[in-house]
Amino acid sequence: MFALEALRAGHAVAVGLPVLFAQSEELDEFRRLGGVLFPYQPLNWLMRRMASQGCYSRFGKMRQWAPDILCVSLGAPCDIFWQKDLLTFLRKNITPQVYIVQCNAEGIIKGDHQRKALHPLYANAAKIICVSHANALLLERQFASRLPNTIILPNPIRSRLERPLPWPDDKSDMVRFATVARYEVECKCQDQILEAFATSAWNSRNWHLDLFGGGPDKTYLQDLISYYGLENNVTIKGYERDIKKIWSGHHIHILISRAEGLTLALIESMFCGRPAIINRAGGNHELSRDGLDGFISPGLDLEVIQATLERAWASRGKWKDMGESAFLRANGWVPKDLSVRLLETITGTIKRTYP
């Protein structure tokens, strides 16, 4: 959305991204508006070795394009370290650099070697954009350094709802949970969610959990569902792009994770008028308030997650009102002019760097 906003404002925009994503239909409007694409292949073992020796780079065309600003969007702050040609490119380039950090977690940056390689980039950045305060504070602790050029801006959502969806009407009185997250248990903890439901108390209740997403642990999750005897209560649904299709038939979002920024899935479910069961990861607990918009698990231990589920179940008569509160919270949290603010933040680095 930022790139489209920049093109409409008359800026020239080039994007470097993996070949697979460069072919996506979602970039049709970007191309139509004159955006330039620099697709690149993932590094194989030979390319990685050559890149680490400074003999190979996928970013030569980007260097020749000579941008006024380099904006680097990262899943996590350590991502640059593993892309040696990108690391070299950013070190040598004197163009003002803006880093958008989408996620952070304990232990993501490991060892003095990584810190020594990464800290100068962040310390000298024209701007660091984090999606939550928790991520920004953690980044400073990871480098034992103040990063005064950091600001907080959430991610934009694809479709902004003007009112919450109608509350699901299920004649069977079944309570319908949903988890919207990639199938990657190391981060998204679906395995712990399943274990938390595998108790005699939940055997006697009328409930169902749908797991939406995709990823490398799909088979493992299916095996776990069978292992815990939850075949009648849990379904792997796969990826669903339309958030209205998900939340028109579900009452509450369960999102337990170890690493987050401020997950778009939570913002979307709250916009749909659904409360959430979350833990203190990234900025999720900054957005969703315990007892008002959802329920916050204070930890990841099994007993703690189970206690939070029990607390939520006992309060299910309040979920509809909490969902309406969640909608108002999300609507006030994500600015309607977010793309414009992001554009002004990034392009403003030129004025500050070159008075």
What's the SSE blueprint?
Elements: H1 2-8, E1 14-18, H2 19-22, H3 28-32, E2 36-40, H4 45-52, H5 60-65, E3 70-74, H6 79-82, H7 84-92, E4 97-101, H8 111-123, E5 127-130, H9 133-143, E6 150-152, E7 175-180, H10 185-188, H11 190-197, H12 200-203, E8 207-212, H13 218-227, E9 234-238, H14 243-247, E10 252-255, H15 264-271, E11 276-279, H16 284-287, E12 294-297, H17 302-314, H18 319-333, H19 338-353
Parallel strand pairs: 1-2, 3-4, 4-5, 5-6, 7-8, 7-10, 8-9, 10-11, 11-12
Helix pairs in contact: 1-19, 11-17, 15-18
What does this structure look like?
The longest helix has 16 residues, at 338-353. The protein has helices spanning 2-8, 19-22, 28-32, 45-52, 60-65, 79-82, 84-92, 111-123, 133-143, 185-188, 190-197, 200-203, 218-227, 243-247, 264-271, 284-287, 302-314, 319-333, 338-353; strands at 14-18, 36-40, 70-74, 97-101, 127-130, 150-152, 175-180, 207-212, 234-238, 252-255, 276-279, 294-297. The protein has two domains: 2-154 and 335-353, Rossmann fold, CATH 3.40.50.2000; 175-333, Glycogen Phosphorylase B (Rossmann fold, 3-Layer(aba) Sandwich), CATH 3.40.50.2000. It is 43% helix and 16% strand. The chain is α/β, with parallel strands linked by helices. The strands form three sheets. A six-stranded parallel β-sheet has the order 9-8-7-10-11-12, with helices on both faces. Strands 3-4-5-6 form a four-stranded parallel β-sheet. Strand 4 (97-101), helix 8 and strand 5 (127-130) form a beta-alpha-beta unit. It starts with a helix and ends with a helix.
